[in-house]
Amino acid sequence: MDASEVEFLAEKETVKIIPNFSLDKIYLIGGDLGPFNPGLPVDVPVWLALNLKQRQKCRIVPPAWMDVDKLEEIRDLERKEDTFTPVPSPYYMELTKLLLNFASDNIPKADEIRTLVKDIWDTRIAKLRLSADSFISQLEAHAKLDNLTLMEINTIRAFLLDSLNCLYKLRSNQHPGSSKGQFADF
Amino acid sequence: MRDFLSGQSAASPGWDSWRSRVTRTTSRRVQRWSFLCGCQKGLYEKKRRVLSVELPKVYREGWRTVFNADPNVVDLHKMGPYYYGLGSQMLHFDSPENPEIAQTLLQTFIGRFRRNMDSSQNAYNEDTSALVERLDCLEKALFSSGQSGLNSFQSWEKGRASQLTASSLVLNYRKRKINDLQP
């Protein structure tokens, strides 16, 4: 899976906007949207919000978690805990990037928010690598990690799966009767 | 047969890493030959005892102790760029040391895993030749898959994932006029 595919999936999340036009309810295959009245907040998917924003037809309201104090709390909690803490949104990284790129004028303290989200991301990736390493070094067969987001999984997926394949082949060398082809061919 | 095999290995030097020493006992004299590993598997048979195989020194007791002590210090590229692959193939030949060899291969991989993961996932947009030169071929493949994951994430974060770039095929034709029109 590519990072842009994960971003595509993230664009389905809803965000609140304040339109400056009026439109009746629209009926799309994915669901109904609207009606749009100027000055009244309405929930729309991110892809529509960004499109309207680029056409200067709305103002985006930042999500509740996109606030400096809240993100600082989340970052400190993440640094304290050994396991992964619940994330503010399953697509926090993608939403941060999209909203801060296209709607930074609607979001107060955009640079600080960007830095805080990057810190949270770095901490979580470091924890992910640590648990991958302990998974491999202890030759576990099964691991469970809660509260991981798709983007984090995506960055490590290729490497981890290839390593686990190699590890499996090396382990099956030790038990020659248990695998079909007797010894591994690399 | 001997000339045929030695001629063949000279013509394809890439197979050198797959050779291992073979001791062929005959009733009259002992000859040491280098065979391709694939040929050996066919010739090797427990019952007839046509061939017996001598382990390359990397898989013997002395080097095994080094690997068990600290696998990170070893230059696996110098030790035979196909350390894991050849080691797995050597296990075909029923040496009494097989369990120890298999264990050492596994533990070496595990010991080096952390460093390989960190270097492949952190080295962005820099010269990685120093990191890669001491890796076995298997580890190099893992390194490149780690790098591809990192590069794809970083290019997405920079916004380069959604930028249109000209294909290298088109650039090679050198027929594009747009570069002349636009400064």
TrEMBL record, chain A:
Keyword Nucleotide-binding: no
Keywords, in A-Z order: DNA replication, Nucleus
Signal peptide extent: none
Coiled coil start-end: none
Keyword set includes Nucleus: yes
GO cellular component, one term: CMG complex
Source organism superkingdom: Eukaryota
Domain DNA replication complex GINS protein PSF2 N-terminal, chain residue ranges per copy: 3-61
Domain GINS subunit positions: 65-162
Compartment(s) where it occurs, according to its Swiss-Prot or TrEMBL record: Nucleus
SUPFAM superfamilies: GINS helical bundle-like, PriA/YqbF domain
Primary location class: nucleus
GO biological process, one term: DNA replication
Family indicated by similarity: Belongs to the GINS2/PSF2 family.
Family matches, as PANTHER family: DNA REPLICATION COMPLEX GINS PROTEIN PSF2
Record's subunit section: Component of the GINS complex.
Role noted for this protein: Required for correct functioning of the GINS complex, a complex that plays an essential role in the initiation of DNA replication, and progression of DNA replication forks. GINS complex is a core component of CDC45-MCM-GINS (CMG) helicase, the molecular machine that unwinds template DNA during replication, and around which the replisome is built.
Name of the protein described by the UniProt record: DNA replication complex GINS protein PSF2
TrEMBL record, chain B:
The protein, known as: DNA replication complex GINS protein PSF3
Protein's cellular compartments: Nucleus
Domain of life: Eukaryota
Subunit structure: Component of the GINS complex.
The keyword Nucleus is assigned to this record: yes
Organism of derivation: Champsocephalus gunnari (Mackerel icefish)
Gene3D superfamilies: 1.20.58.2050
Family according to the record: Belongs to the GINS3/PSF3 family.
GO terms for biological process, alphabetical: mitotic DNA replication initiation
GO CC annotations on file: GINS complex
Keyword Nucleus among UniProt keywords: yes
Major subcellular location class: nucleus
Alphabetically ordered keywords of this record: DNA replication, Nucleus
Role of this protein: The GINS complex plays an essential role in the initiation of DNA replication. Required for correct functioning of the GINS complex, a complex that plays an essential role in the initiation of DNA replication, and progression of DNA replication forks. GINS complex is a core component of CDC45-MCM-GINS (CMG) helicase, the molecular machine that unwinds template DNA during replication, and around which the replisome is built.
Domain (GINS subunit): residue spans on this chain: 65-157
